[in-house]
Amino acid sequence: MQWHLGGYQEAAAATGTYGIMASEKEDFSLSGPLHLAIVDWTNAHHRRSVAASLVQGVYILERDRQLKRQGPQALASPWWEFFHFQLLRHLVDDVDSSIFAAIYEFKPPKSHYHNSLDESPRYVIAFRGTITKPESVSRDLELDLHILRNGLHETSRFEIAIQAVRNVVATVGESNVWLAGHSLGAAMALLAGKTMAKTGIFLQAFLFNSPFFSAPIERIKDERVKHGLRIASSVITAGLAFATKKSYHNNRSVDPFAALSAWIPFLFVNPGDHLCSEYIGYLEHRKKMDDIGIGAIERLATQNSLGGLLMSAMGRDSEPLHLIPSANLIVNLTPCQDFREAHGIHQWWRPDLDIKSKLYNYK
Questions:
Q1: Which of 136, 233, 265, 272 yields a CA-CA distance of 20 to 30 A from 357?
Q2: In total, how many domains does the chain have?
Q3: Where does the signal peptide begin and end (predicted)?
């Protein structure tokens, strides 16, 4: 499917895409995926790039609002218009009035209708992550802390988000809707996806650098030490879960993960990003435990977190959102200069990514 580059390509001439100033990263003509002259919706790289670009559009919507950029000065719209999406509406936080999400509708030109659109979405609900600017940082960091204490589901921002998701799905059906998010926004999209999956509605989700707060075991180089620590952690977690009768029953039919196992989000992780890299070990360790014959311990441990168990023991409602049964894990192995680059959204539409993909399907 051919998309016309128009004026965006001209403005990008002779400009380095990944070595530009931070302020220039908001400009689609300087840092967007202009290489996508053709969008093939059956191509995983293309779908990933479009989803990441729509998330970036939400970041820029909020920055346009903060800087009062309007009309020709506004920078957000090329991030979705380039791919023939229209902005239906944005979602606003009730505490600080910041824009934290956007609902897009895919409106390809009639000239493209003869091409296959089977893998394309009709609507995308995208969530941004934390913006470290005075107008939004206080509220965003508050929500980051809610993730840390497993309480994101109790926040008003999530209530606004899940109601929007439910409304769109009720109107157009689950097969037409994508969720996408980065960092804090990936946590929002993940929680929305899990919430819908519990009701039997499985939405395609693109989760970029979703936070996984735990000890940074994945950064340990010695594989034996790493594996030993993970086994010890699993035994402790499973023991506490059993002792408190948390999420445990001998009958596999009531396995709380069973209802979610058919939902398989796309989980995008960079090993250099300590905020999300633990997903690599979390998913792989479960497989290893099965391979060595002690999968029952890990089956119980993988459904709980030490923090969540402690919160429950204190009588606090806890929803460890990072605990998921199945995922299509995509790891970016391309070397990064620093944490900022490893955690950034821009990496996910680079055309030269060295990635490794693996499907983890909970059974």
A1: 233
A2: 1
A3: none
Residue 12 CA to residue 10 CA, distance in Å, equals 5
> How many Cβ atoms from other residues are within 10 Å of residue 315's Cβ?
6
Please give the model's pTM, rounded to 2 decimal places: 0.80
- Whether 11 is in a domain gets the answer no
Q: Is position 146 within any domain?
A: yes
Share of the chain above pLDDT 70, in %: 70
Q: Is residue 193 included in any domain, yes or no?
A: yes
The span from the CA of 322 to the CA of 313, in Å, is 19
> Does 109 score more than 90 pLDDT?
no
Q: What is the CATH number of the domain that holds 110?
A: 3.40.50
Sign of the CA dihedral running 262, 305, 299, 218: positive
Kindly give, in sequence order, each residue whose CB lies less than 8 Å from that of residue 112, ignoring residues fewer than 6 positions away.
Answer: 1, 2, 84
Q: What is the pLDDT of residue 17?
A: 42
- For the cut 50, the answer to whether the pLDDT of residue 12 exceeds it is no
CB 208, CB 348: distance < 8 Å: yes
Structural domain range at position 188: 34-243+254-360
182-213 pLDDT, tens digit per residue, is 999 999 999 999 999 999 999 999 999 999 86
Q: What is the CA radius of gyration of the chain?
A: 21
Q: Does the residue 17 lie in any domain?
A: no
